[in-house]
User: Fold this.
Amino acid sequence: FDDYTKSYWEVEAIKTSSVSFCVVLPKTHPLADHKLITFEDLSGEKLIIIRRGYSLGIDEVRDYIESNYPDIYLIDVPAFGVQLYNKTVNENILMLGLGESIECHPLTKRIQLDWDKEYPFGILYSKNPSRHVKKFISAVKNIIESDDK
Assistant:
């Protein structure tokens, strides 16, 4: 999440860690054996990417691609969803993702993108959370603060 994402979904968030940008691809794709994917590797490929304005971090990657790699074909989508993983597999195309250790689909894999910026990762919750959610968020904040010491 970032401020764009929080605004779009009208939620609050607590950061628990940071994650790298990655490329989600079918396990059978020619790039699937790479340990790290560069923008040069993406030349000539179709890349699913969340629409502009959803995430500042994703918009930064998009701007970089549009300015430097016009031969990467960007496919805009409104948001992440299971159907995108199926599209990736069925059409043998790539998707910009977050967190190379997050597994969402058995026929895809995630490979870190050679991009030096990370993205905040954590818990999203209502702007008007229930008492139980407030208690949970408070507990998480206490753990994070104690880990920072």
Notes: The first strand starts at residue 11 and ends at 26. The chain has a mean pLDDT of 90.
